[in-house]
Specification:
The chain has 1 helix and 9 strands, in the order βββββββαββ. With about 130 residues, it is mainly beta. The chain folds into 2 domains: about 60 residues; about 60 residues, no CATH class.
Length: about 130
């Protein structure tokens, strides 16, 4: 599979988002780590050839006005896990999970939101080296 990575203005908040386009399949992902915007167009049925795909073979997902974005890194990992928080309940669940269940095993955890055009970063679990 080949892909083209690029940046673009987020259609939700206007901050920089990243786009990943798989040119061999036409699949696409757009994610904003500032507001949590997410868009994906993926193939549901991989048994068909590309030229046989119909609209029904595609799964389109879009979080147009999410609550925010999350980011965390587990102890011992070099990569971070990022994603979208759809609503305030998901954000509260993330806070509880990081603080109560994983705090001793996580290097850091944040929630990022864009409110009135300003980025707000909440440290859910303070970075180990802070």
């Amino acid at each position: 599979m080949g892909s083209v990575l690029d940046t673009m203005d987020c259609p939700n908040c206007g901050f920089e988002a990243w786009a990943d386009f798989y040119y061999k399949t036409g699949e696409e992902y757009v994610n904003c780590s500032h507001c949590g915007y997410h868009y994906s167009a993926t193939i549901k049925n991989r048994d068909k050839k590309l030229n046989e795909l119909t609209e029904e073979d595609w799964e389109i997902k879009e979080a147009k006005q999410p609550y925010g974005a999350f980011r965390y890194q587990m102890a011992g990992d070099v990569a971070t896990t990022c994603g979208t928080l759809i609503d305030e309940q998901e954000a509260n669940d993330f806070r509880v999970q990081m603080k109560l269940e994983y705090q001793d095993h996580v290097n850091f955890a944040t929630i990022t939101r864009v409110v009135d055009g300003k980025e707000i970063i909440e440290n859910v679990v303070e970075p180990i080296n802070s």
